[in-house]
Amino acid sequence: MEREVDVLVAGACTAGLYFAGLMAKQGYRVLVCDRSSEADLGKRYDIIHIAQGSFAQFGIPEPGPGDPDYVQAFHQSLQRSALDKWPKNNYHDVLVLRRAPLMKRLSAWVREQGAEILFDTDYISPEFDDRGRLAGALVRQGGQDIKIKTRLTADATGIGAAVRTKLPQDYGVENFVTGPRDQFYVVLRYVRLQRPEEDKVELTCSWPYYKTWIAPQLVPGGAILGVGANLSFDYANRCWERFASRLKLPEYTFQYLEQSSTPYRRPPYSFVSCGFVALGDAACITNPWSGEGVPYAWLLCSIAAEVFGRVMKDGAFPVKESVWELNRRYQQAQGALFAQNLAMLSGAVKCSPEENDYEFKHSIIFEDDADKGKGNMVLKLLGGLLSGGISFKSLSDLAGAAGIGGKIYKHYMAFPDKPEGFAEWVREAEALWSKADNMADLADRDLAAMTAASIPG
Ligand SMILES: Cc1cc2nc3c(=O)[nH]c(=O)nc-3n(C[C@H](O)[C@H](O)[C@H](O)COP(=O)(O)OP(=O)(O)OC[C@H]3O[C@@H](n4cnc5c(N)ncnc54)[C@H](O)[C@@H]3O)c2cc1C
Which of 103, 126, 296, 449 is the right S-S partner for 42, CB 3.0 to 4.6 Å? Predict the structure, then answer.
């Protein structure tokens, strides 16, 4: 069986559906394929948090009370120190949503724009034209092979990056596999509180030192206890045990567990090549501070739809040079900041619980919205050093990571506006990344220390 479309989108979740809708809206013939059944789409985990403003920003119909994907909205979240003190209030409007019905909302919106979705359909392999350009795909639906001719293939297959990883080495986009050490492992325990009135969870409270949080659940009297960590689910669970052994948590009855992972590594240096774009988790663009990915994927999708939509008019094939501006625009809008944070985070986590507590107390790194921008950070850090609140070693780790992060930020902001300067830019980027710590290495050391001390903790 053979089909011809303008755009093939592999993967029908938050990134793929949104990009498909934007391209279909511009009049392109768009086909989306997903290996999942329609009924199971999005069921990898249930509850998802998305900034409320993202829906209006990206033109997606916003869920509201009474809709099947809507659970609740919250406007405030809290962060607390490693010693469970100095709460920092942050204010932002966030929607708590159910992922599977949210995918139904997006699927309906995509079909309204004129795109077609094929479920139970696996992306198998790329196909190339006689000039070596990506110009099609083999997909498989219920044992039947379908050859698809297309001018653009968008990889939105999530962490597995089913298209990108199958491109030839020299195709212009890195084809690395996001391996186990390049992932952030999230474990969510859905629980019922034993004293629901006293311990009611109405907002998300997190403890950045332990990368743990307690969030509202679907039902009143419930809560989600979350932990995220690099390295493995096993290490994430050890981190949770350490956290639970040090702080007093509300008493609860365990209901069920969800666990899944997100990419945690630098994205490919280029997201585009001839007839190709990588989006969402396939492009590794999750936020290094939170592991969240949806609004950031929508940003990349919106830039991609604008650039490819313009370039592909009148039947033109989107060659790498014609769509290159996407890279620069994404890096300047978001990528440079995430790259900086990825490089800096190791410096912020290498400290003792007492030092983390000091940082909270003096609004170093962790700030209440009301204190944002107040005080001089250098003086605060020096004060920490002189008073013994922060050790010289921790301060120099922090300064070293901040220094490398700053250089990476500047380098990404100066992303070349044409492919010509790219090889040189990549060489410099590689040199900078080689100086940044890897969070999986830090996790390895922490796990070894925990094991040696037979803790939790
Ligand atoms: C436990 C957990 C909680 C999270 N919470 C949040 C949150 O609250 N807020 C937030 O913004 N982010 C959150 N994230 C991150 C967020 O889930 C991801 O960034 C986001 O789902 C990425 O969307 P995506 O469309 O790129 O990929 P995915 O959601 O992974 O979708 C990929 C799709 O591709 C399909 N597919 C895969 N391979 C193939 C193939 N070969 N052929 C055809 N189809 C294929 C899959 O079936 C799937 O439907 C969380 C992640 C985890 C693990």
Answer: 103
Residue 280: which of 296, 266, 269 has the closest Cα?
296
| Degrees to nearest 5, angle at CA 269 with 124 and 173 | 30
Q: Is residue 80 part of a domain?
A: no
Q: Domain range spanning residue 292?
A: 2-70+96-178+267-323
What is the tens place of the pLDDT at every residue in 363-421?
A: 887 888 888 777 787 888 888 889 989 999 988 888 888 899 999 999 999 999 999 99
Between the CA of 247 and the centroid of ligand 1 the distance, in Å, is 32
Burial class of residue 10 in the structure, from the number of CB atoms within 10 Å of its CB (0-12 exposed, 13-18 middle, 19+ buried): buried
90 in helix, strand or coil?
Answer: strand
CA 158 – ligand 1 centroid, Å:
5
Residue nearest to atom 16 of ligand 1 (CA): 293
205-225 residue pLDDT tens? 999 999 999 998 878 899 999
pLDDT tens digits, 137-156: 999 998 999 999 999 999 99
pLDDT attached to residue 177 = 98
- Ligand 1 centre to CA of 13 (Å) is 6
d(CA 179, CA 359): 33
Residue 83 lies in a domain: no
* Ramachandran class of 454: left when φ > 0, alpha when ψ lies in -120 to 50, beta otherwise: left
Amino acid at 52: Q
Q: Are residues 224 and 123 in the same domain?
A: no
Per-residue pLDDT, 456? 60
Residues 63 and 97: beta-carbon distance below 8 Å: yes
3-state per-residue secondary structure call for 347-366: HHHCCCHHHHHHHHHCCCCC
Within a 10 A sphere around the Cβ of 427, how many other Cβ atoms? 9
Q: What is the mean pLDDT of the chain?
A: 94
- The pTM for the full model equals 0.95
Q: Which residues face 184 on adjacent strands?
A: 230, 262
Are 231 and 114 members of one domain?
Answer: no
For residue range 316-358, list pLDDT tens digits in order.
999 999 999 999 999 999 999 999 999 988 887 888 999 999 9
Number of structural domains in the chain? 3
Residues 240, 299 within the same domain? no
